[in-house]
Protein: G10 protein
Organism: Selaginella moellendorffii
Amino acid sequence: MPRVRTSKVEYPEGWAMIEETLNSFDGKMREAVNESDDGKRICEASWPIFKIAHQKSRYIYDLYYKKKEISKELYDFCVDQNYVDKNLIAKWKKPGYERLCCLRCIQPRDHNFGTNCLCRVPRESREVKVLECIQCGCKGCASGD
């Protein structure tokens, strides 16, 4: 969650360009948190939250690294104010992790046999072609897909 906004925070140049989109992501996040989890498995309740957090981080990542539409100062401000997941963005910059959905998929302690999640296996190497990650609900985030 981003920090509570106060009048003391000075927003960098270009903030107006991304403010509306970040506010819409915050609204979606509030809806996902308040959504009823009746009829869902325990693990499914947090999937929308992971998805929105991924989308928000990917939006800022693409604006800074791919499209180069925002300044470093604005990017650093978003990271410092916790608008994005800096650890996830750090993984996206490494080869083989360009499409990583969440950090839980690569943590061996969260999976059987101390391995990665099944969504990290390329589709052509899987025995079962359609699956959902139990951690975040993604259908495959291997960079080779």
